[in-house]
Amino acid sequence: MVCGVGEPLLLFASPLPIYRRPGTRERRRRDLFMRFVAAALLLLAACAPEAAPPAACCTATITAVVPAGAPAVYLTGNLAGLGPWRPDALLMEGEGSERVARVTAPRGSVLEYKFTLGSWEREALGPSGMVMANFRLAMEDNVSARHEIVDFKKDVKEYIADWKGSGVKGTLRYWTDVASRFLSEKRHVSIWLPPGYDQDTERRYKVLYMSDGQNLFDPRIANTGVDWGVDEALTALVEEGAIEPVIVVGVWSSAMRGPEYSPWHRAPDYARFLIEELMPRVNAEYRTLTG
């Protein structure tokens, strides 16, 4: 029984009658119901957390001065509105030599960003002709920045065709768009032949297989604009007598890089690609030591 009423109080059990003037009993039930609702609303209001005031924001106006005839230029960066780091995240305004983008960020944050033509293969280049480090702006107030872009990376196949332009020690050869029945993505493969490979036609070589093959030899192709110097390191070790010359096979990473390197995801399939497809082809086309 509730509060002395002769029967249980059922909230929303039935509508209040509207066809006659309510009597004392109906008025009491209605008053109790309204008091219950009012108390519940007050309790909810007391328990609700105070809404946090909106964070103060400021705006960065970023201008890129690009070569004449450049196509659409994109801004990418570390904020949600810039991908984060999706290469075609924000189309910059303008069609001439100046392209402009405006980015809003919380006051006190640090904005990092880069410029592309819509993909990481066409990233902006600095005065040295290499990929530039991330640009950074401290968002303490509304700010502006202006950058000179001397060029953008060429299509990767142009660099592949001009492999000598990489300055590599030894010889570079490439297989492009290699498909696999185990993997969903095609990929390029770099094959580095040590100095002397073409002269000593009877010699056979051990093979070193490496992942992230785009980063091994050519700074024009490497993700950061600085290659890992594998050719220089191996050549120096051979000249010191520390190791025998080897062939290096570098498998370029794909959009599935993370899953393919993870033993809990696609690494078993990636291993089958290496062992069952790539290694037999390398052994068939180059003078490798097998067995």
Question: What brief labels describe this structure?
Answer:
single chain; 291 residues; alpha+beta; Immunoglobulin-like; Rossmann fold; 3 domains; four-stranded antiparallel β-sheet; four-stranded mixed β-sheet; elongated; disordered N terminus
Secondary-structure element order, N to C = HEEEEEEEEEHEEEHEHH
Name the CATH architecture of the largest domain: 3-Layer(aba) Sandwich
Rg, Cα atoms, Å: 33 Å
What number of domains? 3
In terms of structural class, how would the helical and strand content be classed?
Answer: alpha+beta
Q: Strand count, sense and closure of the main sheet?
A: 4 strands, antiparallel
Number of helices: 5
Cα shape: elongated
Please give the share of residues in helix: 10-25%
Number-wise, the strands total: 13
Fold-level CATH name of the largest domain: Rossmann fold
> Briefly, what CATH class of the largest domain?
Alpha Beta
Query: What is the CATH superfamily of the largest domain?
Result: Alpha/Beta hydrolase fold, catalytic domain
Describe this entry's structure for a reader.
Helix content is about 20%, strand content about 25%. With about 290 residues, the protein is α+β, with helices and mostly antiparallel strands. The strands form 4 sheets. A 4-stranded antiparallel sheet has the order 3-2-5-7, with no helix packed on it. Helix 3 links the parallel strand 12 and strand 13. The longest helix has 24 residues, at about 25-45. Residues about 1-20 have low confidence and may be disordered.
